[in-house]
Amino acid sequence: MNDSLAVRRLWWKELRQMTPLLLMLPAIAAGLQLLNWANNLDTSVHAFQTMQASLVFGMPVLFACGIGAMLVGYEKELRTIAWLSSLPIPARRIIGVKLGAGLAGLLVLWVLSGIYVVFAQGPRWSFGEWVDEGWTFPTHSLYVLLAGFALAWRSRSALVALLIVVPVAFVPHIVAFGIDRWVIPFEVPFQALLFGCQIVAIAVAGWLAVRWGRIALSAEPPSRPGWQSWLVDRDVERARLQIARVRPVRPPMSAAVWQFAAQSRAVLIGCGAMLAVAALMAIFAHRFADPLAWLLGFLASSWLGVVVFQSDGTGDRIRFLADRGLSPSMIWWSRQLAPAG
Predict the structure, then answer these.
(1) 45 and 134 in contact (C-beta within 8 Å)?
(2) CA dist., res. 222 & res. 319, Å (int)
(3) What's the burial of 120, exposed, middle or buried (CB within 10 Å: 0-12/13-18/19+)?
(4) What averages of pLDDT result for each successive group of 10 residues across the chain (341 residues)?
């Protein structure tokens, strides 16, 4: 196979795959701005600044959170990663094209955010104030993008990778705060300290994204460490003991709801925690945290909608339900109740 032709085809596939996300995020930002103008929300300086920050920082950050799960996690669920690894293309080329496409999309959204800033800033918006507070956002979005790719290579589900990347995104801030509070005895600007932590985090996340990508694309799966084998044996033993117990037969609807809540437990708990944190930040945090609270709430509510049928698609679980004669309406309602609750 012609190597240059294969790489061009890979680039075309990745760019076409992420095009809907690149179009959707600016469309959402434009819709929010139109709602802002239509409802005259910009009469308050605080509301105006919060909306502008959400639009400027929201598009690249949301893209950075989701692009790894889209280009890697979704393909793992569809098992097209196995097809890619079977092609006569080096693993480093596949990883490089995916990372390059993600970085190109992130750059495009930051350029669009900059263009929006040029045309949207007005006399009531002190852009210099936002620059002083938010100049580390581009480097942080780069770290989140690389961490998202690394987690997507390691996770079995795209939605699980999306969920894990949210707490991982706070690691540089937590480390910088700890160093500023307990390590450095003299005064250092927190933004400069945060920038240094982000650079280190970018290097680590990039190395893990490449390493875990090569492991995932390798011909043979890596051997499990001893502690992972022990976890598998423990889960098998627990399942055997549960099967051995005598339990009352549940009604089909109750059993379907319980089964969905059990297989989606981690995602439901994580989304609930994100909504709780977003609510607390909106109530108690100062105004520069308002955009972050808005993004957390938006992500959590969106992922609750995605999780409705996502877990059934993993491993063709939906076929298991269909083969046992459960009606489509019962399956639909049983998947809606837990996220709605």
Answers:
(1) no
(2) 29
(3) middle
(4) 77 91 85 71 52 71 89 84 83 92 93 76 51 73 94 84 84 88 77 90 95 82 51 59 58 79 80 84 64 76 78 69 76 81 77
313-322 long-range contacts, CB within 8 A, separation 24+? 313/77, 314/77, 314/156, 314/157, 317/263, 321/256
- The whole-angstrom separation of Cα 31 and Cα 59 is 13
Measure the CA–CA gap between 51 and 45, rounded to whole angstroms: 10
Do 107 and 63 touch, CB atoms closer than 8 A?
no
pTM equals 0.73
Q: Which of 107, 68, 91 is nearest to 6 (CA)?
A: 91
Helices (H), 39-170: 45-68, 74-78, 80-86, 91-120, 127-134, 137-154, 158-169
Q: Are 61 and 295 in contact (CB under 8 A)?
A: yes
Under DSSP, is residue 128 helix (H, G, I), strand (E, B) or coil?
helix
